[in-house]
Amino acid sequence: MDRRAKTYREFWPLYLAEHRMPGTRQLHFLGTGLGLLILAAAAVLADWRLVPLAIVTGYAFAWIGHAVIERNRPATFTHPFWSLVSDFRMFALWLGGRLTAELRRHGLE
Fold it and tell me: Any residues with CB less than 8 A from the CB of 99 and at least 6 apart, and which?
């Protein structure tokens, strides 16, 4: 990833480029979805000890995808906040059926 992104607008297409391979995105979706389910369980059960598990779950699947499939370094290490926002943005686009169009818009699909 070009680590010189100065704005989120510049960062987003770079983030998407780091997730070109469907397997990487699938692991991100799995991790994000499971992480959100664990957070929901923590809220319903009022068991806040589950929150660290939700965080670890979300990141573990994503980082495995980057290491094994994409073979790149996660943006979390250079732009942690923008990366987190982008994880949820990509997840929301996928849930809404709009991720493929967004990838195409940036010449990535």
Answer: 25, 90, 93
Tokens read off for 54: 């939700």
Domain count along the chain:
1
Is 63 within a domain? yes
Mean pLDDT over 83-103 rounds to 98
Backbone angles phi, psi at 26, to 5 degrees: -60, -40
Query: What count of other Cβ atoms lies within 10 Å of the Cβ of residue 29?
Result: 19
Interhelix angle 51-64/22-45, rounded to 10 degrees, is 180
- Whole domain around residue 101: which residue ranges? 12-105
Question: Of 23, 22, 57, which is closest to residue 37 (Cα–Cα)?
Answer: 57
Tell me the per-residue pLDDT of 43-57, one tens digit each, with 9 for 90 and over. Answer: 999 999 999 999 999
